[in-house]
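Q: I have four molecules that I believe assemble together. Could you output structure tokens for the complex as a whole instead of separate predictions?
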Amino acid sequence: MEKGLRADARRNRDLIVAAARELFLEQGVDVPLEEVARRAGVGVGTLYRRFPDRDALLRAVGEESLRRLADLAETACRDEPDAWHALCRFLRGSVALRLGVLPAKLEPHLHQRMRVGPDLHEMRQRVIAAVLRMIERAQADGALRTDIGPGDVALLMTLNVYTPPGMHSEQAMGRVVEIVLDGLRADAGSPLPGTPLDEDDLRHYTAVRLPPAE
Amino acid sequence: MEKGLRADARRNRDLIVAAARELFLEQGVDVPLEEVARRAGVGVGTLYRRFPDRDALLRAVGEESLRRLADLAETACRDEPDAWHALCRFLRGSVALRLGVLPAKLEPHLHQRMRVGPDLHEMRQRVIAAVLRMIERAQADGALRTDIGPGDVALLMTLNVYTPPGMHSEQAMGRVVEIVLDGLRADAGSPLPGTPLDEDDLRHYTAVRLPPAE
DNA sequence: TTTATGCGGAGGAAAATCTTCCGGTTAGGG
DNA sequence: CCCTAACCGGAAGATTTTCCTCCGCATAAA
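A: Yes, here they are, computed for all four components at once.
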């Protein structure tokens, strides 16, 4: 990505994005940019040079998250021969990404302010395609319950519970995810209320529409 | 609760707490208090008179949430003859309370700044007792999987997924909760990783310890 | 060695938020 | 019905937070 930067500049850019990602998760997207700079170990000047405003930074973090998710989906889909296991791996991984905390605040940016290239859209398509394939195969195998749609999976990707400090939260979340996976098995339970959520139900989800040029 | 207030004062107090609860959920606990006042339909002065600082308001909101939760737990436990159904009702209800968004920010207050009476502690006990009873009975009935502890249920109470605007989020959350409930059934699945979380694992959870008087 | 590119962070501008204060209003007892 | 203590609203000044530019120094790359 981002090319034509001197080596140190490139390194700092990545440090900043990583720090921002952490802080957005921990404290919300309103953290002072100075704090981001501090955590990244760079000066504010450096941050402002690379990211003219908060939105630019937000966008970078969003892109990175989505890319990670897309990679995860495709890797799981490709490397795991059994569709059900692929789905498990994907869901465990995406919950670990802690996507749930970001989009609530990212959303308005994605929709309104972001003038965004086709990259994001493409990554989104990659995720959808992979998830769809996993779902269909797993349902054909009789492993995944049939009243589940891609929209449901997308929802579950952002699964989140509050884990109090002091508790080993990764372990706790691990248990929760497994419970959910058990709830997704074909033999799991009574039919769900409503109808399976499909991609259209998530039209607005991390939606990347090119905003009308102003 | 709060007694000795003139009727209008009392009414305003409640309006403020309700507004604060909404806004804390929507925008985080850092919302300007002026905005809380506006939504409550009162002047800032009124808010400050009743709640000297943000912490006081936070505390009030926390108390109310916990009380609702306690009521829910006891009602479910009492009114529902079948333990499994009681648990379902409780979990559906507590997720609807959207507890998950609050405590992350409430926590430091509960721990460090809040000089809190025994009421909170007592309400917490009420929740624990009711949950414990539901769990034990449901497990004895062979309805609830046995590798689940009260701590797990407490975690699940705060269940949360990101629902994009435009989607009917209540319906979506409803599906998620049912999936989780299916995952909790005795016949659900493979054993969970780790050991059942008990109350001690949640010692810090909405923990109400009298802070050392300063 | 040279130089274009990048760095840090001090500090003034701007914005957001807090908190007080007081003239006017209202509930509710007598 | 009337009186008064209790309460209300919100303007305005104080304070804190956050932004973001600017420039002298450092360093990667050729």
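A: One point stands out. Chain B touches chain A through 48 residues (CB under 8 Å).
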